[in-house]
Amino acid sequence: MDTLTNASGEAKVGKKLTNKSSVADMDDEETNDRNMAHLNISSDILDEDDIELLRERLPTRLENNEWTLAFSTTRDGFSLSTLYRKTQDLDCPVLLTIQDVDQAIFGGLLSEPPKVTEAFRGTGECWLFSLAGSGDLSVYKWTTANTLFIKGCTKNLVVGAGDGQFGLWFDGDLDHGRTQPCETFGNPPLTTSSDFNVKCIECWAFLPST
């Protein structure tokens, strides 16, 4: 404990003073704890800083929701049909995160889980993102140019489209994908090469906190 003296000479007892580096360390620990408290399991793709950056861009109604890992290629295998099956009972937005073999991290917020549908589904709540190695997050929101948000079939999954191009496209094995500029989100390709090979995919569901 440190003893301080005020202008009248009265002694005051307070907590031991902490140096700036210790305070910074405590703040970092609190931030990490706060981030990880929202995940029901650790991510193979996102670190604490990535999670914080993404959470800041979520719709307000989702900011305090728990991140539940609904699907992971590490845990569940490389299969689009398994992704559909693992998310079929969800009724909430999901965050699709991808890491390719070149270590690029990107993905999108989907207003509803991906599923096999006859037409495009989703709302303007959807967006695409890319994360640079320096922790720089780029988010590409709905341009209002069209409503081609999410379309799933047995052989592929599409997020964003227009003029024959797709913001994100995956094959049925989830091991190969493509990213192109699309009218829905006005995004550039999310990787240095439009075609990419998948290292890992995670699908996080935003379940209400209990």
Walk me through this protein's architecture.
19% of the residues lie in helices and 34% in strands. By secondary structure, it is of the alpha+beta class. The chain folds into two domains: 1-37; 45-207, no CATH class. The strands form two sheets. Strands 3, 4, 5, 6, 7, 8, 9, 10, 11 and 12 form a ten-stranded antiparallel sheet that branches. Strand 10 and strand 11 (176-178) form a beta hairpin. Helix 1 (20-37) packs across helix 2 (48-56). The longest helix is centred in the N-terminal third of the chain and has 18 residues, at 20-37. It starts with a strand and ends with a strand. Residues 1-37 have low confidence and may be disordered.
What is the topological layout?
Layout lengths: L1 E4 L5 E4 L5 H18 L10 H9 L9 E7 H4 L3 H8 L6 E7 L4 E6 L16 E5 L5 E5 L8 E3 L3 E7 L2 E7 L4 E3 L16 E13 L3
Antiparallel strand pairs: 1-2, 3-12, 4-5, 4-12, 5-6, 6-7, 8-9, 9-10, 10-11, 11-12
Helix pairs in contact: 1-2
